[in-house]
Fold this protein.
Amino acid sequence: MLIIRRHQKAAFAALQRERFLDQTAAYLRRWHGPACEALGDAELRAFIEEGVVRAGRYGVTLEHHVVQFLDWMLDVGPGFDADPAHPWIARILRDPALHGDLRMPALEDEAEARGFPVGGDGSP
């Protein structure tokens, strides 16, 4: 029987996190080049980490959806989730009837229905 100890799980989680950060940074540089170049490597990494935390507050935890959340931060603005000019965004992200895994797809659907321009597909 294979036994995975706590410290091994922690090491694996750290490797997975680094992989996610690296792949997401590469994706964001490819699709949001000028904005990411303006940030620089360290600031881009901090931006991604902040986005992960903020997305998590809405129950958005699937990698694909977290990357979409980051797309929105770059396309609409870093505070898009609290922008009073677009109250429908916060309404969807805070909707208790929606599971966290359904919030970004619902947001994308509503944006499309409104003709609201948001780019990127969340695929690092």
Summary: The chain has a mean pLDDT of 90.
